[in-house]
Structures are given as structure tokens and as C-alpha cells.
């Protein structure tokens, strides 16, 4: 069950991939349901992701369109104060929008619920066509909050040198060749002991949640999200032993960049980047705090895999 405030003191935050009609329509439904239940609604003023070539342009939220339907909303800036005093955050979009919302929710310990309006939407709890059912559950407090492992990342100048930068990741940290020219010479370390040295495009260190994202594309295994473990996946490695490894959640994983080779960059969830000079190392461990994840359904993870990846299951008979 959710730990919601008493009626009249409740507030939901909405983070939306704005500018699409389907998102706007879903946002209006959320707004109307919150207004009818006396729940205050906050909406981030725009999609603040950095657009890549070919991406849709930024679109600000149109609060007047919502107010014309009788919904009172507070349009706010994407800063740490956005999550203050909110019960939970509703994410309308795909996995990219969910990861953007996590940047606000994780530091504030704010529970997140994703409604998929993107493509695969593996991080979403539900699809847009069941938004009324989802809102019924949220308004009545009939939901639960689970913890998802988060990684803590530090870049150090050599083993005992100063910390050059630090951040966190819900999905993965990808240590990549900055120049994309030639290979990156790396040495992996687990719990203070060297494991393997190789040249590669990079190395991924992922959570169970992130095992279905970049790490999966790089040849890593799928891990059930309630499993506690850390996944290490080399990317296009030139080595005899460069297979994915699943380690203890208490393990400390480090990757050293050859001091005589190329520099690298550590990319966390595709959003936050840390420079990794030649000779530096990226240290990764389980973060003390988890991301709080809202659940409203009981769909088995196996069913989600089949649905999201369109896996063939024809001929399955099950238990007789």
C-alpha cells in the first residue's frame, strides 16, 4: 500500500514527453481524475532532454488547455524543489522519459510510476489504454512501492587518487571509447582483484533493471528485477575471456583505463557523463539508497519479457 497523506494534502508530480497528442490526452485524463479526487497536480514545464539530430523539438506544456477542462495545475521548473511534498511521480512517455524523471525522483526518494507512451517502454508499469484503472488504484492508495537497485559511480585518478567525478545509475554505466577510433584498453577488477585485461569498444556495468537495456543489446543476460546482483558486460571485446559476469550485489567493480592508451567517458543511463582520462579508473558499487518503484499490477516478469520483446511462445502447454 502507498503511504499517502490524508485527503486534501495529496499532490502528484507528472513528468511527460510533451508535444504528442497521445501524451496530451493522457495528461488531461490524469488531470481530471486528480481534480475530482482533490489531489493537487504539478507538471514539469517542458521536456528538458537534450535533443539529438532528428529528434522532435522541445514542446512546453500548455497549462491553459488543462485549465480549460477545469483542471488546476501548477507548472514548475525541473529542479530539486519539484518533488517536494509530492506523494509520487507519474511518468508519461517511454524509457527515456522515465530515466529523466528518475533524476528528480531518486534524490528526493519519490516513488515513480511509468505509463508507456513510447516504443518498448520496459520501465513502464502500465500502458496508456488502462490509465483510468491505474488512476483508480493511485487515488485509492491501492498500490505498493518496491525498491530497485541503483549503482554509485566514481571516477578516480588511479587507484588511490582524487575523485574526479561521481554520479549514479539506475540502468547502467557504460565506459566507452571517447574517440570511437580504435579500441579502448581496459582492465576489469572485482573486489580489489584483477579479472581480465582486453581491448574493447567499452564495458557496461548494469543493475538487474538495466539488464534489458544497453547490456542486453551488448549480449548480456536478462536478470529478473527482484534479483540482487551486478552485471558486467564487455562491448565488442578482443579477448579470449570477455564474457558477461554476474557478481554479488556487495561486489565492488572497477575498470581501469590504460595510461598509455585512449581516454574514455562514463555514460550513466545515457544521460549523465563523466570524463575518464587515460590512467584513471571507474569504480562502481551498489548505492546506499534504492529507487522507489510504484507497482499497481501483478504481471509476472516473464509475461513482460514476452510482450515487450514479442517472444514466440506458440505451442506452450503449461502444467497439465
Concise overview:
With 320 residues, the chain is an alpha+beta fold. 18% of the residues lie in helices and 33% in strands.
Task: Give a verbal description of the structure.
This protein is of the alpha+beta class. It has 2 domains: 11-149 and 290-309, Rossmann fold (3-Layer(aba) Sandwich); 151-286, Tumour Suppressor Smad4. It has helices spanning 21-37, 63-67, 95-108, 131-140, 214-217, 301-309; strands at residues 11-16, 40-44, 74-76, 88-93, 112-116, 126-127, 144-148, 151-156, 163-169, 172-177, 184-190, 193-200, 202-206, 230-235, 245-247, 253-257, 264-268, 272-276, 281-286, 291-295. Strands 3-2-1-4-5-6 form a 6-stranded parallel sheet, sandwiched between helices. Strands 9-8-19-16-11-12 form a 6-stranded antiparallel sheet, with no helix packed on it. Strands 15-14-13-10-17-18 form a 6-stranded antiparallel sheet, with no helix packed on it. The chain is globular, with a radius of gyration of 21 Å. The two termini are 35 Å apart. Mean pLDDT is 88; it is low at 48-55.
Task: List the keywords.
320 residues, Rossmann fold, Tumour Suppressor Smad4, 2 domains, 6-stranded antiparallel sheet, 6 helices, globular
Count every helix, treating DSSP H or I runs of 4 or more residues as helices: 6
Structural class: alpha+beta
Low-confidence stretches: 48-55
CATH class of the largest domain: Alpha Beta
Residue-averaged pLDDT = 88
Amino acid at each position: 500500500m502507498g503511504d499517502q497523506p490524508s485527503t486534501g494534502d495529496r499532490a502528484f508530480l507528472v513528468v511527460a514527453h510533451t508535444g504528442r497528442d497521445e501524451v496530451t490526452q493522457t495528461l488531461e485524463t490524469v488531470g481530471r481524475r486528480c481534480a475530482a479526487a482533490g489531489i493537487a497536480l504539478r507538471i514539469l514545464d517542458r521536456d528538458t532532454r537534450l535533443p539529438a539530430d532528428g529528434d522532435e523539438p522541445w514542446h512546453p506544456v500548455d497549462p491553459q488547455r488543462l485549465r480549460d477542462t477545469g483542471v488546476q495545475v501548477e507548472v514548475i521548473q525541473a529542479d530539486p524543489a519539484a518533488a517536494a511534498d509530492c506523494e509520487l511521480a507519474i511518468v508519461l512517455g517511454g524509457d527515456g522519459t522515465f530515466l529523466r524523471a528518475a533524476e528528480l525522483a531518486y534524490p528526493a526518494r519519490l516513488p515513480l510510476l511509468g505509463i508507456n507512451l513510447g516504443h518498448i517502454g520496459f520501465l513502464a508499469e502500465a500502458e496508456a489504454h488502462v490509465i483510468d484503472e491505474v488512476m483508480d488504484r493511485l487515488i485509492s492508495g491501492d498500490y505498493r512501492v518496491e525498491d530497485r537497485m541503483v549503482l554509485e559511480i566514481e571516477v578516480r585518478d588511479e587507484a588511490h587518487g582524487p575523485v574526479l567525478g561521481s554520479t549514479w545509475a539506475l540502468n547502467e554505466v557504460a565506459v566507452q571509447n571517447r574517440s570511437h577510433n580504435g579500441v579502448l584498453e581496459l582492465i576489469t577488477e572485482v573486489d580489489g582483484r584483477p579479472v581480465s585485461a582486453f581491448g574493447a569498444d567499452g564495458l557496461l556495468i548494469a543493475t538487474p533493471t538495466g539488464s534489458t537495456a544497453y547490456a542486453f543489446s551488448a549480449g548480456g543476460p536478462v536478470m529478473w528485477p527482484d534479483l540482487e546482483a551486478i552485471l558486467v558486460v564487455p562491448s565488442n571485446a578482443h579477448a579470449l575471456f570477455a564474457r558477461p559476469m554476474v557478481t554479488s550485489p556487495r561486489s565492488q567493480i572497477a575498470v581501469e583505463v590504460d595510461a598509455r592508451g585512449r581516454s574514455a567517458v562514463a555514460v550513466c543511463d545515457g544521460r549523465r557523463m563523466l570524463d575518464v582520462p587515460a590512467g584513471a579508473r571507474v569504480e562502481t558499487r551498489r548505492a546506499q539508497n534504492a529507487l522507489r518503484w510504484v507497482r499497481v499490477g501483478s504481471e509476472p516478469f516473464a509475461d513482460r519479457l514476452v510482450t515487450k520483446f514479442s517472444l514466440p511462445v506458440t505451442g506452450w502447454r503449461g502444467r497439465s
